[in-house]
User: Fold this.
Amino acid sequence: MAAEGIHMGGDEVRRPPRWADALLGTCLNAQEAETSSGDLLEAYRDSIYPLKGRWRADFWYVRQVVGYVLRAKGMGLRNWLLAGLALCVLTIAFSLFLYPALFDSWVAFVAVGFLFYGYAAACHTFPATPEDAVILRLGARYGIASGTLWIVGVLGLNLRLGVWGVFLVLLSYVLPLMAGAHGGVRLWRLRAGMLVGFWSGIISGLIVFLGFMAFGYLLAFIPGLPGAEIPQNHPYTAVEYQQLNVGDTLGGGLVQLFYGGAFSVIGATLGGLMGILLVRSGRSPEEPRRLVW
Assistant:
């Protein structure tokens, strides 16, 4: 009994990060999560921990979990969304740690927004019907296209490419209408167009936010790049210059992530309605189809 107690105590001490184990259970189905967690835990306790120590063993465990999550079959969209949201949260936390003056009441509203997006990604990305699969697939495609156009267009404007940058940004605003029309006409449901816009908005918002933040840190630490914000009213220190540029891109990224997501839903709903009405007006009287929400 004494030996068993010591062994159990050692196992309790040699426990990998609980949040990583919870992430594994969230991103894999129950059977895969149980098998993978057992294999990782055995390797962690029996070989990795004695050789590397706690911190390096914990890092090893987290790397293995991330690998399992990225390789998970049939759950790609869900895992990528959760990974993107986690990366956004870590980026915000890192920025606030470096520049505490950026902290304000907006943090509470942003936290609520991330919780809502996380709930949607965790609980509503399993296609229960063929229609759900179509909606998620269209939302992913239009979201990637819209986010990429936005990033390239804004970079073009900062690099003074003129009309091409404006054209790409405007095209990214047109895509939600096209996404809603595509989803609405494809499934003949206005709600389908709206949901395509919702997923498209989340995905494009994540791409734009992370792209903005990467660009913001480049502006902050490489002075002289086109598009940098420079204080005009007083001499500035290096920290003030960095904070101004990181804060500017942080604000722009959050606006695009949340308000841009709302715009995508509204635009897709309008696009779906217009698409359905246009297609229905072109049908013969022998082909009536009822519009379903």
Notes: The two ends are 65 Å apart (CA to CA). Residues 1-12, 284-288 have pLDDT under 50 and may be disordered. The chain has two domains: 1-73, 74-281. The CA atoms of residues 85 and 118 lie 7 Å apart.
